[in-house]
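cron nightly-structures :: item 1 of 1
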Amino acid sequence: MRVRVPFGRSTLTGYIVAVTPHADVGGKPARIREVLARVDETPSIPPDLLALAQWVSERYLAPLGQCLRLAFHGAPEKPRSTTRTKQPDAIPSGAAAPVSDQSTYNVQPLTFNDMLAPLHTKVLAALAHHRQERIFLPAATHELVGLYSNAVEATLEQGRTALVLLPEVARVEASQGGFLSRWGHRCQVYHGGLPPGTRRKAWARIQQGEASVVVGTRSAVFAPLARLGLLIVDQEDHPAYKAENVPRYDARAVADERAGRAGAVLVLASAHPSLATVHAVGTEVLLLRATPDGAPPVTVVDLRDAPFGTILSPPLTEAIAACLAAGKKALLFLNRKGYSPVLQCRDCGQAVKCPACAVGWVYHKHDGLLRCGHCGRTGQVPENCPSCLGARLLPSGFGTEAVEEAVRVQFPKARVARLERDRPGGDRANLAILTLLQAGELNILIGTQLVVTRSPRPVVSLVGLVHPDAALNLPDFRAAERAYHTLREVMALADHKDSTARIVMQTYVPQHHVIRALAERDPRLFYDNELVARKALGYPPFGQLIGLRVSGTKEERVETAATKWATLLRAESARARPANVEILGPIPAAPFRVRGRVRWQLAVKGAEGTALRQAVQATLAELEKAGRAGGLRYDIDVDPQSLL
């Protein structure tokens, strides 16, 4: 139960997790202050969710109080005024909310190919026998609509409940109509994007047993469902399942733990599974993903033979011209916003940097401004270099705005639009662009990763991957995996029903295993090579990793604290038997400064997660004794998705 308690001069929400007849600290009686009021008249979450929150606290080294908050809808309801405004996003019981695109989950006639039929049988058999099992489905979302529907229906017939996790709010909103039309008032949408009042009501419906099917994002893994029988994690490779803020839990790992505790069937699904899943289930599952007949051919353009800085190579230009001549649509993908990633001084070589983050400003030529990709700060383009006062400031590299400029020069009569997050009108403007493309009012769409997360899907006859190498060269052990998943999704936008559809990929590294796997449509090329590389270095899934970061306002104190942490960790590792903990760093983080705070980072790597967590906990306690002068903060990220 939640209660309101005095804490110093403040009043906070506390959680009653146990009751003891005696209260003492170090064997001495403690001074106890009275509880001020109850927030809940009865226990709000079942024991299994309490235990799950405690597990999250231990695994991710996060305070228990912050983990308990995950099991609730948020802040306690405050007294309301007598004037009420109806929330347009609220979903009344038994009603289906209108959505812009329901194509993903509209219930369709159940048809399976030879690949999915035995897996469908396996899921239903596990449900029928109440057998706790983890099942992987190597298929795209639209191929699994019927299977999901049957599995949920079978779960409900047994008097149990079902939970469906999707990676992003946009995908939940695009699919909720199909779920609601099928299960009506028994279905509840639940995610952090709901208004507080709507989220509170949704949580209450689930907690009171009025909803038996919950569809939501990662936070829904803590929905207070009783008698859980089925847990589906769709697009399990998506990085959005990992929380960025404390507690930094991974919803996939939490789903696995919750399914195991509830004896539920866990279904993981993806057309291009995560490396961890392939390692767990075996690479033979990749053989089930044969290239479909009629898949658009892939042309690889070796940019080493082109002038440096080429944006549109002759083969890509010719492909665009042919596409336009046939009256068809093209998509040019580059996951880099603005005109160029940085303005660089040709006199001193320095980049113009954000004063708060110390990283290069992104140059937006159309708006005539600079924008920081980390803190969002904007600034005017200077006439002279801030470092040497030189006057030769020129763009270095190129982004989607430069691609648009090149396209308009080459194809002045084409109707071109750019999909981007930071634009006037936001998502509403992007929806209008996608609608125009779908209606045939646009010829060429230029976009970043938004093209695979927004609806309606921009299905086209030509997909041009302008510069996929940028994602491969990031200093992060998951860079290749992220690039592979993103590029696979973009390539899937090429229309398989169009016999003339094609994909053109420009690259300076045609022999890279990611490029070869995509060009040859052979997943094993990627997974086999990436698994070998990860194993050689002991990175996940062959080892455990904890990312550590020290930040503060004083550069010298931050560096000193990071160095001390590394020293303590190495000493702790030396005492371990066997000493199998490796300390990486400390080094300045990238970016070095964010929102005025200096950052240093290090990582702890080893074969056994428990040993790593114990070492981190012991050394952090030692650091905390020195206080937090200089605004020091210590952040811990267990199983990080990135070391950037």
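cron nightly-structures :: done
Residues 72 and 203 are 8 Å apart (CA to CA).
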